[in-house]
Description:
Helix content: 25-40%
Distance between the termini: 28 Å
Number of strands: 5
Number of helices: 10
Radius of gyration: 18 Å
Strand order of the largest sheet: 3-2-1-4-5
Amino acid sequence: MALLFFLFLATTLTTPRGSNQENIPYKIHLRRPQSGTGGHRVHGLSCLSWRLGVETNNIVGWITVPGECEEYVGHYMLGHQYRKDSRMVANQALLYAQSLSLARDGKDVWVFDIDETSLSNLPYLAQHGFGVEPYKPALFKKWVMEGKAPALPESLILYKKLLSLGIKVIFLTGRPEDQRNVTANNLRKAGYHTWEKLILKGAAYTGKTALVYKSSERKKLEKSGYRIIGNMGDQWSDLRGTNVGNRTFKLPDPMYYIS
């Protein structure tokens, strides 16, 4: 895995020639296919099945990626398939948004999660076993406070398209309130230059699950007159509960689970 991470950092973060991707700063590089993601040998089919269980929410409450799946998850995240899967989700979200008849009154909003949805922590997670290592709050906070997480390119493209359609964006994140400034600056640096609201988890939600917190904040949004026409996240807790919006879109994330 050390070799994988070295190649990840050593390669320029650009999109290959012939891609229809826009010119986005801080891109996540499209690595060459590896086992299990490039149509060649599928090493450890059980890991592929485990990822399917995670993405379909049939495996819940897990703490870490199984140790034997570190290589598989690393290949998936740094290979072509993660980007292809993310692009499929974003494309479907855009097709849906383009089909809507909007009220044009400034109340149609799209809710985006931040971590592994708008911004990618892959540079950090690649150094910590792609979710095999237990979550270390102090280390992750240090990474967040550096404010250099890149955008997930597919989400950034969708964000720009939604704005062009007249849909306002609201970021709803589980990051704590004391990370507001660094999060806002990181979003702007990654290409997200405007938003209607940036909602972070306040002290009132201490001890509450992400599902409870995000449901409550979405309810507040709808009570204040906003219409949540779309909702995108990498965790099922971003998309379940109450007031989830007219339609939800789940991005892939086999690296960690948030209840």
